[in-house]
Specification:
Largest sheet: 5 strands, mixed
Helix content: 25-40%
Number of strands: 9
Strand order of the largest sheet: 2-1-7-4-3
Shape: elongated
């Protein structure tokens, strides 16, 4: 009677473990509204259409429920149950060891030029994933609470000069500094003030002057280098000529001395 009890207990725990393993989180974002929300998917059948799909592939979201009917997702990444993030370009659903350097996702070098071999997960989704990051590329029939029903305005405006021109449809003759987006800073008991970003890649008279100075410095440095090279070649040729003449004089001296010795020997 003990053995069936133990078997039933084992089957119960294994069933709960399978249910816990099937739980998966979907991190859904909607860029047009600037919203993002995480959903827990406990049904493995609902997440199965995402299996064997790679990063950047589009998957219909009908399997997640009736409210997701008509939605299309694009996979952007994810993490497995041990916390390793997916890497684009690694065509496997397992973890591999990569030699990572500065600029590689998931690695921060501690010393200059340091490289390290670390584990990274492939770009293919499977059942071992804990979180899947997706982006809505096509909206469905129904609205999703917290994603399509709300809108989060952008906190900061564009910073680059060309993007400010593109946002306000400006020409090159217009002054971009008049159209930069400022945000108001409110402080309790203090005077309010506004902040604006420093416009990047802004062409100003000062910038043109610095550019002319840089070009003039490069030209002067090149001219000086050529002058020094010509002087060096002149001095080197002179010294080489002097050394050749000295060798020739020494050779003639040795020949004359040997000739005199041979004459005295014959006498």
């Amino acid at each position: 009677f003990i053995q069936p009890c133990q078997f039933s207990r084992f089957s119960f725990f294994s069933l709960s473990a399978r249910r816990a393993a099937a739980a998966m989180k979907f991190n859904v974002s909607y860029p047009p509204n600037g919203t993002q929300k995480t959903f827990n998917i406990d049904n493995e059948l609902a997440a199965r259409p995402f299996y064997d799909k790679r990063i950047s592939q589009e998957v219909p979201g009908d399997s997640l429920g009736d409210e997701w009917k008509g939605y299309v997702f694009r996979i952007t990444g994810g993490n497995d149950k041990q916390g390793f993030c997916m890497h684009q370009g690694i065509l496997t659903n397992k973890r591999v060891k990569l030699l990572m350097a500065k600029g590689t996702k998931g690695y921060r070098p501690r010393r200059t030029g340091e490289r390290k071999r670390k584990s990274a997960r492939g770009c293919i989704v499977d059942s071992n994933m804990s979180v899947i990051n997706v982006v809505i590329v096509q909206k469905g029939e129904k609205d999703i609470e917290g994603i399509t029903t709300t809108t989060n305005p952008r906190r900061l405006g564009p910073k680059r000069a060309t993007r400010i021109r593109k946002l306000f449809n400006l020409s090159k003759e217009d002054d971009v500094r008049k159209y930069v987006i400022r945000r108001k800073i409110e402080r309790e008991g203090k005077k309010d003030y506004t902040k604006a970003p420093n416009i990047q890649r802004l062409v100003t008279p000062q910038r043109l002057q610095r550019k002319r100075q840089e070009r003039a410095a490069i030209k002067a440095r090149d001219t000086r280098r050529k002058t020094l090279k010509a002087e060096y070649e002149k001095i080197a040729a002179k010294r080489q000529k002097e050394r050749a003449e000295a060798r020739h004089a020494l050779h003639e001296k040795r020949r004359s001395s040997s000739h005199r010795k041979s004459e005295t020997a014959t006498e």
